[in-house]
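Predict the 3D structure for this chain.
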Amino acid sequence: MSAQNVKEVVKEKYGQAALRVASGTGSACCGAAPSSCCGSESVDPITSGLYDELQKSELPETAVLASLGCGNPTALAELKPGEVVLDLGSGGGIDVLLSARRVGPAGKAYGLDMTDEMLALARENQRKAGVQNVEFLKGEIEHIPLPDNSVDVIISNCVINLSADKDRVLAEAFRVLKPGGRFAVSDVVVRGEIPSNIRRNVELWVGCIAGALEETEYISKLAQAGFTAIEVEPTRVYHVEDAREFLTAEGIDVDAIAPMVDGKFMSAFIRARKP
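Done. Predicted structure below.
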């Protein structure tokens, strides 16, 4: 699939997710099909349990329902009052709104998204939350519409893995960060080699892990972009049992592939710094 095709598929899927939330017909989910939701909606092993009740209570329900992430970067990024934060692929705005509260009135939180439906939902969530120090921008994470050296912290919640040009995304992140700025994202990574045909089947289970980089490759790409102090900290490891029902329905022998994939897909918190 070409980079442009990947982009169109992602845009369509996330647009539909936003419309489901906005219309009150359900939550967003990161599975390839609306019915999959990375497993059943009640026990979604990818997106469930990422935000505590206090965080959720501060936000409109539609911001929480539209969360398609696999982590909680705002809890891990150690944001400080007065900082400027940029969320790559901000979706319904949950991480932007939480970040805006953490950086306070003297700081600012930008959200960048390419999907009109998600931007509309995010701006409505901002209005409901009454948060002023937020700006949602339309654009692509490969072409960030902000000047050089303008951001203190970049966060992202399992979006970079969806890009077909990760080198460009990381180069852009490096460009807009101020010297000493921090890269603090949640993303899905793969630990070790997985046969490509099996990888495709597991990625089918959940669209949000499509395109996940192998851990050492992610570190290498960050270093090539200029980042230092790179760390990858697993936050949730996915097991084949989580996907048994879905994969079996796809005609896949789960027991046969288990030794090759179990525990190799994970959400991780990835930190780096611009010198």
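The chain has one domain: 3-273.
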